[in-house]
Specification:
The chain is α+β, with helices and mostly antiparallel strands. It folds into two domains: about 210 residues, Hypothetical protein, domain 2 (Endonuclease III, domain 1); about 130 residues, Alpha-Beta Complex (Nucleoside Triphosphate Pyrophosphohydrolase). Helices cover about 45% and strands about 15% of the residues. Strands 1, 2, 3, 4, 5, 6, 7 and 8 form an eight-stranded mixed sheet that branches. Helix 1 crosses helix 10, helix 2 packs antiparallel against helix 8 and helix 9 packs across helix 11. The relative contact order is 0.11. The structure holds iron/sulfur cluster. Iron/sulfur cluster binds next to helix 9 and helix 12.
Length: about 350
């Protein structure tokens, strides 16, 4: 089956593929951009990001000269902001070390920070037609179902088994078309839940279908542990004449949302009453015992990330005097709620749209 697998797969692809802009180009920069964005979101949402990035920064050289804040702002809504920072870092490395051209070999591509095996294989194969097989969660699912990989795909054995099949399958065929066909097959046909196996071109050869194991494969050992975190945000407002000043701060911690902007925050290990919060050292370090009025206390807003559940509550505080903030907390005032140049986590952006 492995011998004619690619031929049947690419036949399916030629008939079923979606018209997507990154399929019309062999520009390594555009292909890289599309891969990084698509690791983060679905095609329909990713399209707008791809087009916006390309129109703002049509070349890797132009992207390399953008600021981190500009890139984070355009990435807003996609999550995993370290990917956006890596995107910029990689663009700068391509300019500094490769004169603004992506290297054409997998070995050189993988040396660039922010480019992992999947992206390196995608660029090497799609832009430079090199026989490197892409292996991501989609490909692992398709190959383990089709060829009956029963070891967990997050174990070294399972990973190796899938990679070995992927490598065999790409030999002697057009690497660019083969890899794109694999991705499209995983996205459209062999989908995670309830694939339409009765109308699949591989239904007569597929291990999982013939053994009734479609819902069981791919097998995984690790269960992702979700940690709950409690964020207490303070929307500190001060009015002067006809203007409103609001305190925001840049998040500097490396855990989530690094470099993005949010309201002054106290994180707690459980839900804590407002009275307790305002007596804490953390609160006084931000607001330095200044006088305020609590004008509103929001409901808890639940925000789900891959490994974390954020329970956020927003306290609207009104200050009579201009609040002064200690520098090390990185807090400053913005005028009339003009957040437009600040990249915001989706939780904050949503709250602002609905409540401020
Ligand atoms: S028969 Fe079903 S499980 Fe097998 S490859 Fe096709 S869609 Fe996937």
């Amino acid at each position: 089956m492995i011998e004619n697998f690619s031929l049947r797969l690419t036949n399916w692809y030629n008939y079923n593929k979606r018209a997507l802009p990154w399929r019309e180009t062999n520009d390594s920069y555009a292909i890289w951009l599309s891969e990084v964005i698509l690791q983060q979101t679905r095609v329909d949402q990713g399209m707008a990001y791809y087009q916006r990035f390309l129109s703002l920064w049509p070349t890797v050289v132009s992207l390399a000269s953008a600021s981190e804040q500009e890139v984070l702002l355009q990435w807003q809504g996609l999550g995993y902001y370290s990917r956006a920072r890596n995107l910029l870092h990689t663009a700068r490395l391509v300019v500094e070390q490769h004169q603004g051209h992506f290297p054409d070999s997998y070995e050189e591509l993988i040396k660039l920070k922010g480019i992992g095996p999947y992206t390196a294989a995608a660029i090497a194969s799609i832009a430079f037609n090199k026989p490197h097989a892409v292996v991501d969660g989609n490909v692992q699912r398709v190959l383990s179902r089709l060829f009956g990989v029963t070891e967990p795909i997050d174990s070294p054995q399972g990973k190796k088994a899938v990679e070995s099949i992927a490598l065999q399958a790409i030999q002697g065929v057009d690497p660019a078309t083969h890899n794109q066909a694999m991705m499209e097959f995983g996205a459209l046909q062999c989908v995670p839940k309830s694939p339409d196996c009765h109308h699949c071109v591989f239904k007569n050869q597929c291990f999982a279908f013939s053994k009734g194991k479609v819902a069981d494969l791919p097998l995984k050992t690790k269960k992702t542990k979700v940690v709950t975190r409690f964020f207490n945000y303070f929307i500190a407002i001060w009015h002067q004449q006809s203007h409103t000043f609001t305190a925001i701060q840049q998040r500097l911690e490396s855990d989530i949302w690094k470099g993005l902007f949010e309201f002054p925050l106290i994180e707690t290990s459980q839900e804590v009453e407002f009275e307790e919060l305002i007596q804490s050292d953390d609160f006084n370090q931000i607001f330095d015992k200044q006088t305020f009025t609590l004008v509103r206390r929001s409901e808890v807003h639940k925000h789900q990330l891959t490994h974390r559940r954020i329970m956020a509550r927003f306290y609207h505080l009104h200050f009579e005097q201009p609040p002064v903030f200690l520098d090390e907390k990185n807090v400053f005032l913005i005028v009339d709620n003009d957040f437009s140049i600040y990249p915001l986590p989706r939780l904050i952006d949503r709250y602002l749209q609905q409540n401020v």
